[in-house]
Amino acid sequence: TQLLEQSPQFLSIQEGENLTVYCNSSSVFSSLQWYRQEPGEGPVLLVTVVTGGEVKKLKRLTFQFGDARKDSSLHITAAQPGDTGLYLCAGRGTSYGKLTFGQGTILTVHP
Amino acid sequence: NAGVTQTPKFQVLKTGQSMTLQCAQDMNHEYMSWYRQDPGMGLRLIHYSVGAGITDQGEVPNGYNVSRSTTEDFPLRLLSAAPSQTSVYFCASNGRYYNEQFFGPGTRLTVL
């Protein structure tokens, strides 16, 4: 069974601060995805990283896939209240169609 | 396109009752999955399907049944509801060559 450990579980910060969320595993994944979930809705894909060492940027969000494809990070610069939500990492193993999710990080950005 | 739809949105059951959560997608996706989401535990895979007539167990399959008679529909059946099945259930689909999973809006189930 592949496991993904996501940290921190909760993050409460002020508007304008920077933050990083981590996703770690002892298993290798073929790709790693980050989702964002609003209350009462399903998760929505933010990004997929596939290559070890890959870095992708989405406005103020920077995603990195570890060289060994076992870990990933999400860095948000100058957080805004609109960034508030649940962030989930998910790894895809060798079996297509199956994702393993981390526990999630609840981010609250205060004005 | 409606994407992935789920019904009902909310449901309350008594212990021992059975029910079916409905899921449908109109994107012609081959892959469909059912997850449950509990606080602090992320999303856990219950059952999944790689095509009509093909299903397999995920991480937490006990107490749930699925079938896939068409590409569009993937219902989840609770055979005899238990309080431990109180959760939010999400259905998702993705195409064979697309990495992104599209999620439905979820069903919030409470078992008393």
**Content-based structural category of chain A:** mainly beta
Largest sheet geometry of chain A: 6 strands, mixed
The biggest chain-chain interface is: A-B, 25 and 25 residues
In whole angstroms, how far apart are the ends of chain A?
A: 41 Å
Distance between the termini of chain B: 36 Å
Radius of gyration of chain B: 13 Å
Principal-axes geometry of chain A comes out as: globular
What is the number of helices of chain B?
0
Q: How many helices of chain A in DSSP terms?
A: 0
Q: Which quaternary structure do these chains form? A: heterodimer
| Rg for CA atoms of chain A | 13 Å
Helix fraction of chain B, binned, reads: under 10%
Order of helices and strands of chain B: EEEEEEEEEEE
Q: Main beta sheet of chain B, described? A: 7 strands, mixed
- Which percent band covers the strand fraction of chain A? over 45%
Please tell me what the overall shape of chain B is: globular
How many individual β-strands of chain B?
Answer: 11
Number of strands of chain A: 11
Low-confidence stretches of chain B: none
What is the structural class of chain B? mainly beta
Explain what you see.
The complex is a heterodimer of chains A (111) and B (112). Chain A has 111 residues and is an all-beta fold. The model of chain A has no long low-confidence stretch (mean pLDDT 92). In chain B, strands 2, 4, 5, 6, 9, 10 and 11 form a 7-stranded mixed β-sheet that branches. In chain B, strands 1-3-8-7 form a 4-stranded antiparallel β-sheet, with no helix packed on it. Chain B is built from no helices and 11 strands. The termini of chain B are far apart. Chains A and B meet through strand 5, strand 9 and strand 10 of A and strand 4, strand 5 and strand 9 of B.
